[in-house]
TrEMBL record:
InterPro entries recorded: LysR_HTH_N, LysR_subst-bd, WH-like_DNA-bd_sf, WH_DNA-bd_sf
Species: Roseococcus pinisoli
Classification via Pfam families: HTH_1, LysR_substrate
Keywords: DNA-binding, Transcription, Transcription regulation
Entry keyword Transcription: yes
Protein name: LysR family transcriptional regulator
Domain HTH lysR-type: 1-58
SUPFAM superfamilies: Periplasmic binding protein-like II, Winged helix' DNA-binding domain
Coiled coil: none
Phylogenetic placement of the source organism: Bacteria, Pseudomonadati, Pseudomonadota, Alphaproteobacteria, Acetobacterales
Protein family (similarity comment): Belongs to the LysR transcriptional regulatory family.
């Protein structure tokens, strides 16, 4: 067992697919499959099982990922410390965010560096579950995530809430409607976010609550794929405003309200034991201003 094999297991676990894990690690899918089989042979049990065209972690994998995450948190912390020492130290703030904020956050962080020129920033993308583990392990100082409610294990601040929307090809029969019903996803081929993604989990909870079985043809691990997948495959999708904002000027897709209505929050997370930080407060203030046009502000 080596770190690269464990890194592959970790990337497959958090991306929800062998292809996603291979991409994140920078190896081919056949190589990733061979590495995974070799790792499973070494430890003597399966880490993933296939069901309905997806892979799901086994009970053993759910336990093992906790230790593996801690290993790579320490690796990340050691790497960050080495870089800081090489540059002579200085105040540092490591930020992790959901994928769809990867284009918004750097703009705000640029303003922050101009205000605090001695500050050293790090930025990475992680889903909510990874963010929680990273923040609790002090592998990052601030997380920006989405979900129905912030996790109670961390300090948090909600920027606002917004509703899920339907995304369709412009030529789709449903595009002529003003509203798309959740029931439509049982009759029209669709793509959905992985249930490891908070919005994907929310969509699946909606389907289960209303006893609807969606006609899923494609599962995506990141909302960054939504636009290209909708227009390329001709499937209907469900997305939030961070995803649909990038599509507003596209003529080949349309965005419609989804009924019944379901909303979710965008929020900041940090370790409750973290020291007060003027830079963090400034970043949160500016980010709230930047997100306000996309969200219904909370009182």
């Amino acid at each position: 067992m080596n770190l690269r094999a464990l890194a592959l297991f970790r990337e497959i676990y958090w991306s929800g697919s062998i292809t996603g894990g291979a991409t994140r690690l920078g190896v081919s899918q056949p190589s990733a499959s061979r590495m995974l089989r070799h790792l499973e042979e070494q430890i003597g049990y399966a880490l993933f099982e296939r069901a309905d065209g997806r892979i799901r972690p086994t009970r053993e994998a759910e336990v093992l990922i906790q230790d593996v995450d801690q290993i790579f948190l320490r690796v990340d912390q050691t790497s960050a410390m080495a870089r800081r020492l090489a540059r002579g130290g200085g105040e540092r703030m490591a930020v992790v965010c959901v994928h769809m904020l990867a284009t918004t956050l750097p703009r705000v962080m640029g303003r922050l560096l101009r205000k605090y020129p001695e500050l050293e920033l790090e930025l990475d993308t992680k889903g909510q579950a990874e963010q929680v583990n990273t923040l609790l392990g002090r592998g990052a100082d601030l997380g920006i995530a989405t979900g129905q409610e912030p996790p109670s294990s961390l300090a948090s601040r909600v920027f606002g809430r917004s509703r899920l929307m339907a995304v369709l090809p412009a030529a789709h029969p449903l595009a002529a409607r003003e509203v798309v019903a959740l029931e439509d996803y049982a009759h029209h081929p669709c793509l959905l976010a992985s249930d490891r993604d908070p919005l994907g989990a929310l969509a699946m909870e909606l389907f289960n609550r209303h006893n609807i079985r969606p006609k899923t043809k494609l599962t995506i691990g990141s909302p960054l794929f939504c636009y290209d997948a909708v227009r390329t495959f001709g499937l209907i999708a469900i997305a939030g405003p961070l995803t649909t904002a990038a599509m507003t000027n596209r003529s080949d897709v349309v965005i419609r309200p989804l009924e019944p209505e379901a909303d979710y929050a965008i929020y900041a997370l940090w370790n409750p034991g973290a020291a007060p930080s003027a830079a963090r407060e400034t970043l949160l203030k500016w980010l709230a201003e930047d997100l306000r046009p996309l969200l219904n502000a909370t009182p």
